[in-house]
Amino acid sequence: MIQIKALPFGSMHNLNFWVECTETGSLGVVDLADGVLMIKALTEARKTPSHIFITHHHHDHVEGLGEFLDHFPKAQLIYPEGETRIGFKGYPYKDRETIRFGATKVLGLLTQAHTRYSLNYLFDSRHLFTGDSLFFAGCGRLFEGSPADLLTAMDRLCALSPDIKTYYGHDYAQSNLEFSAQIEPNNSEITKQKNIIKSKGAPLFSSIALERLINPFFRIDQKEVIQAIDPQGQLSREERIGHLRQKKDQF
């Protein structure tokens, strides 16, 4: 069994996490928006990490990695295979590779849209850490990938078990839901989630099941989504998701 703690760090609505195996005490950190603050949080909690999982190379996910590794030199650094921009040597993790983490396992799933090398980490077959690949009701911008890459990534994540919980690298829930409501104004689940956030604040995780209901990048084959981005019905799925991403960029 694992326990998860979310830590909001940084000026870009970053969410970092630590994941702990309750049976063995193994503790993994997922991404670093601020290495100094993460060191402080772990030290105050008297925790020592055994692993640090990096989803992609962007600075707000590796900030302070040097200080972190100096403070916790035994922590195993893990990052996507092929990524050379992390700046530190570690273990390059392959797509579909599984490693032991305490008494459980972690599966790596590559999505090449936000960056060329973005890795999602699935802990215990139930908890998926997506970095900037997938957000609450949204996804990351296309910095290095193409619309075809984004389609492949979204189809891959959407096809996972609906029971899997998803943990994302930034809290953009409110903005994403506003955009989703513009695309699907008659979607009652989007309205429900907007009201929940208004009364209780943004959630720290989602699920594949919920994203199938509210995330337009999972829903590009829905009639209302097609009508919003391709009213003439002339675009391919790849073109539709590309247009959808462009609309979100301009939102």
UniProtKB/TrEMBL annotation:
SUPFAM superfamilies: Metallo-hydrolase/oxidoreductase. Keywords: Hydrolase, Metal-binding, Zinc. One of its GO terms (molecular function) is hydroxyacylglutathione hydrolase activity. Pathway: Secondary metabolite metabolism; methylglyoxal degradation; (R)-lactate from methylglyoxal: step 2/2. Residues 13-170 form the Metallo-beta-lactamase domain. Its cofactor is Zn(2+). Its EC number is 3.1.2.6. It comes from the Bacteria. Coiled coil: none annotated. Gene3D superfamilies: Ribonuclease Z/Hydroxyacylglutathione hydrolase-like. The keyword Zinc applies. Belongs to the metallo-beta-lactamase superfamily. Glyoxalase II family. This is hydroxyacylglutathione hydrolase.
